[in-house]
Amino acid sequence: RLYQHGGVAQRVNFKNDLTHGLYETFWDKGEDKPKDIGFFNEGKKDGVWENYSCCKEGQSWLIGRTVYKNAKRNGLDEAFDADGDVVSKINYQNGLQSGLFELFHKNGKIKERKQRHNDRTVGLSQRFDEKGFLVSEAHFGEGSQEFILADYFSKEKKYTYSRCIEQTSNKWTNIDNCSELAIDRVEHIAAQQGLETNSQQQEYFAILKSVPDYPKEALRKTIEGHCVVEYEVSADGKTKNLLIDQCTDEIFADESLKTVSRFLYSPRIVDGLNLSVASVKHKLTFVLE
C-alpha cells in the first residue's frame, strides 16, 4: 500500500488469505521511518511488536515494545520517551495486566512498583521520589475492591482494610462502611503525626478512594456510563468545591459527588507547608456486571 506521493505506507504478507508473517507500516516521511513493525500468525498478532513516533532529527524513534500471543498481550510491555529512556515496564498475561508493574522517573529510578493480577493491584504497591526514597505504600487484598487503603504518615503503623472488604457480605454497603473506618483511621494518624512526612516537598497523592454504589434507578434501567468530578484537594487532604465536569447521564451525578467527597489525600507539600491543589479531576465509571 502506497501514499499518494508514492512512498510505502504499508507492507503486508498473506497466507491462505490471512495476514501472516512480517507486517510493517511507515510514516509518510520515507521508508526508512517505520511506524509499526510486527508479525502475524494466521491473522493474529504474534511475537514482538514495535511502535515508533516521528520525527526527531529526521528519524523516527521507538516508543513501545509489546509481546503478543494469539492477538493478546502476553509478556513484557515497554514504553519509551523521545530520548529512548524507559517510561514503563508492564507484564501481561492473556491481555490482562498480571505480574510486575513498574513506572520510571526521567533519571531511570523507579517511580512506582506494584504487582498486578487480572488488571487489579494485589499486595504491596510502592511509590518513590526521583532520588529513590520511598514516598508511599499501599496494601491491596487479592480479590477485594480496588482502592487505596494505607496510611503514609508512619512507617511503623501499617493498616489495611482488605479484610473488612472481604468479610462483609453485601458488596455495595461494605465499601461505604470500610471507607468510613478508613477515613477515621487516617485522620487519627494524621492528627498524631501532625501531617508530617519524610519529605519537605512532595506532590499530593491519594490515601483513600472508594468505589461508588450503582444508582438503583440506573440498575432498573440497565444504564451504564461515567461521570468526571472536578474538585480541590485542600491543605488537610480532603476534597472540597466539588462539581460535575461531565456525565454521560445525570442519573450518576449524585453518587459520583458523594463518592469523591469521601476521598482522602496526602496534601501537596512545598518547603514543609501543606498547600491546596485546584482543578483535580477523577472519572468514575459505572458498568453492569
Name of the CATH superfamily of the domain at 144-289 = TonB
- Helix count, per DSSP? 4
Characterize the biggest β-sheet.
13 strands, antiparallel
The arrangement of helices and strands along the chain is: EEEEEEEEEEEEEHHEHEEHEEEE
What's the alpha carbon Rg, rounded to whole Å? 23 Å
Give the fraction of residues assigned to helices.
10-25%
Structural class of the helices, strands and pairings?
A: mainly beta
In words, what does this structure look like?
The protein is mainly beta. It has a domain at 144-289: TonB (TolA/TonB C-terminal domain), CATH 3.30.2420.10. It is built from 4 helices and 20 strands. It has helices at 162-167, 171-193, 216-221, 253-260; strands spanning 10-15, 18-26, 34-41, 44-45, 47-56, 59-69, 72-73, 75-80, 86-93, 96-104, 110-117, 120-128, 134-140, 205-208, 225-233, 239-247, 264-266, 268-270, 273-275, 277-286. The strands form 4 sheets. Strands 1, 2, 3, 4, 5, 6, 7, 8, 9, 10, 11, 12 and 13 form a 13-stranded antiparallel β-sheet that branches. It is globular.
Question: Could you give a quick summary of the protein structure above?
Answer:
One of its GO terms (biological process) is transmembrane transport. With 289 residues, this protein is mainly beta.
